[in-house]
Every structure is written in C-alpha cells, then in structure tokens.
Amino acid sequence: MKEITYSSTRGADECLTASQAILNGLASDGGLYVPDHIPVLETGLQNLARMDYRHVAFEVMRLFLTDYTDDELRRCIDAAYDDKFDTEEIAPLAEAADAFFLELYHGATIAFKDMALSILPHLMTTAAAKNHVDSEIVILTATSGDTGKAALAGFASVPGTRIIVFYPKDGVSPIQKQQMITQQGDNTHVVGINGNFDNAQTGVKKLFADQELRKWMEERGMRFSSANSINIGRLIPQIVYYVYAYTRLLKEERITEGAPINVVVPTGNFGNILAAYYAGQMGIPIAKLICASNENKVLYDFFSSGTYDRNREFILTSSPSMDILISSNLERLIYHISGNDATKCRTLMELLARTGRYDISDDMKAKLEPFAGGYCDEAQTLNTIKSIYESCGYLIDTHTAVAAGVYRSYREKSGDKTPAVIASTASPYKFTGSVLRAIDPEYSSDDDFDKADRLYELSKVPIPKAVSEIRTAPILHRTICEVDEMEQAVKDFLSR
User: Fold this and answer.
1) Domain assignments of the chain as residue spans, ordered by start
2) Is residue 296 pLDDT above 90, yes or no?
3) Position 146 confidence tier, pLDDT thresholds 50, 70, 90
4) How many angstroms separate the CA atoms of 367 and 285, rounded?
5) DSSP string spanning 200-222?
6) Architecture of domain 93-110+233-460
7) Alpha-carbon distance 404 to 319, whole Å?
8) 367 in Cβ contact with 286 (< 8 Å)
9) pLDDT of 113-131, one tens digit each?
10) At 445, phi and psi to the nearest 5?
11) Smallest Cα–Cα separation from 306: which of 348, 350, 355?
12) What is the pTM of this model?
C-alpha cells in the first residue's frame, strides 16, 4: 500500500502525514489539505458487500490514513461506531419514491455529521500521541446547525481537548439550538454570533490564520484544530458511507457488480458531496453526482455557468444547514480540476476573498461533467415532504427533501433511470416545525417539543433520544457576541 501525504490546496511548503494534517486542521496558508493521490479500493466490491459498516470503514480509511497502524485505526473505528447508533447497520438504506434513501441520522445527534464526528476525536487524540504533541488541542469550529452539536458530543470531556463552537444566533432550528446550548462538559463552549453562518465560518478561518493568536495559544500550551469538514479527518470518514451504500445495493441484489448509480446530496459546504466524488475516484461506479441546493443556490449557479459568485442576498430557509454562500470544500474540487495546480487554486481563492467571485477555465468546466445541479425553493421543499409522506408513508426532513425534490426534477427532465442513492442527512425530528408545516399545516404550536409529539402521533416514527433528553435539560451556554468579538470570546474561554 502506497503511503499518502497531504499538502495545501494553496501551495504552502508542507508535506504531511495523515495524522499531522488531522492535527493541524487547516494549512498554514489558509488552504485545505488534500491527498497526493486518491487511492483505489483494494478489496473487491463483492467482498465489501459481505462486511459490516465497521469493516468497510477500515478497508476505506486505511488507504488514506497510511501512518495509522491497523490496530490504531480499528480502535478508533470500534470506539466510534458502537451503541451510540440506534441501528446495527449504522447507515441503513430505505427504498421510497423511486430512490434509495441513505439514512445518515442514526447517531447521537440525529444528523449525518455524527458519521464523521464520532470518529474524529479518536483520530485526533491518536494523532497527538503518534506525533508526541503535549499541547492541549482546542477545537474551533463554525456551524450552520449540525456540525456544532455533533462536534460537541464527540469532544465533550475528552482529555487534552477543549471545543469552541460558533453558530448564527438566529440561523439554526430551535431543536439545533437547544441541543447546543444544553451541552454538558467543562471543556465545551458555545457562542451565538449576530450574523450568518458565512460570517461565523469566515471569522473562524481568520482566527486560524492569526499568527498573534497562535503565539498567544502556544505560550499557554495550546494549539488549534478544526472539526469542520475543512479537516481531512472529517472528510475521509464520509467517503465510507457511499462505499457502504453501493455494496448494500449489491448485497441485496438491487444492482449487479459494476452497474452505475447516481448519488444525490443536499449541499451547503460541499464536504458531503466531495466525499461521494472521492468514492467514485476510488472505484465506486457513480454515474452522476447530483448537487442539490436550496434557495441559496450559489453551487447550482456554479455548476450551470462555471462562475462562483457569493455576491447575492443571503436567504434564511427551512433547511438551515444549507444556508451557505461560501462553500469551503469546493476549494478541494477546484484544486483537483485545475490539475492539482496550487497556484491556480490560490489565485481563485484570493479572487473570491477580494471580489466575492471567480470564473473557472473551459478546461476546468469540462472536468465537472460528473456533476449535475438543481435547486428547490421553499414551496417545492415542503411539497416534496408532503408528497412522499402521503404516497408511501416515509418521512423526511427539509434537507433531504431538497435532495429528493431536485432528484425528481432531474429524473423527469433527463429520463435517467439509473438507481439513485439520496443522502438523507437529518432526522425529521430535528426540524419538526417545517416538517409539520408540510404534512399538517393546520397544527399550531410555538413549542418544538409539542410539535415532536404531534409528529409522532401522525407518523408513529419514534421520537429520538436526542430530542427527548433535551426537553428539560438546563441551558448551560448563553454567550452571544458580534463577529468582531469572536477572538475575545475564544480568549475568555481559554483563560478560565
């Protein structure tokens, strides 16, 4: 097995092992770490089809994390994918509405971020030991709703770590907010900002790049790392479930070996669909990667025109985890389609920072051929939830509905009947108000927990523990700040 090293999309003079890249989170020049090549699956698809999720995870991740020993990696996997998931399958497939829904919400916080953030703390603490890092690791992350709680749950009370999460105060669902502000653990800190997710994400990137702050941290025996999907240790575990989904279809004889599938992903920060792209590069026969956007359709416009332009109105929607205009992980795709040209990638990212837009070349556009784009407005999103529920009794959340709505439109326009896997990224109970508005518009209550009870009455889908346990949980995090106060909020917490 060939060793994989990691370097920056922007060309910093770094060549790191996987564990070093995971520890750093973000490259010193502000770029994202990328592998020097995408490995090809060594285990045959039929053999993978006979394995459970943990074994598939090992076969995929060992190809990327080449400086982890087999024993180290197995320990991380076993600690992550245990009984915190409410199904033995970890990521089951449900057939509904002419597609297969890959349910990625059976973890502790009922969202797909659990799939990677359950293992990241173990990868990171193992990496610290491997690299003889004695500094306290401070996880600094911005969230549009789901990453925050999943990261908090993963790192809470983990020795040698602290975690600080910034979220848009008025830009997450009530359940998402309640999950975060009730988080226990002396090493956790949650801060609402007066701004949107892009403000939070940009602020966090600035903190990572602040050399004075880095020096301040070092003097106190601390170092930053990231739990966002900008961390390669977040991205690699996401590749696993696309490999797993294909091999489940193979095992259940829904497809024959080598037959292509389409993958549909509700997309904001681009990490989840980039993981599917990497799975295709590894040898999973993916015909089309369908990028589904909500009304913040910056990615749909990019795939349609080759122009990325964040200079537009920011719209708050019922799928808040996708309310993003700066899709950080797209930078990794830009790097790849530029022929791994870090100078070209850096130039485009500088243009984005300076002007809010960039255009890619015709050669780069040609390499986007595997991708298709689409978007759903609010009415289409709610209608998709309603129509799927009424036609087959299957209940989905708003983000999954964006993907399902885009797929329905894509299928009607293209006539493409290739079997499709839709990434179902959150439980409907995480967005009870919007889901109820779709299937029971006459119901009215201002209490999200009353809405959860009503949703159970209608659907008989059990209320997840992640919702029931926060009904009466005390609020532990009340800090609110302006965007330009984020650094002080970090220093205040780390000085305790």
Assistant:
1) 93-110+233-460
2) yes
3) confident
4) 17
5) HHHHHHHHHH-HHHHHHHHHTTE
6) 3-Layer(aba) Sandwich (3.40)
7) 13
8) no
9) 999 999 999 999 999 999 9
10) -165, 145
11) 348
12) 0.92
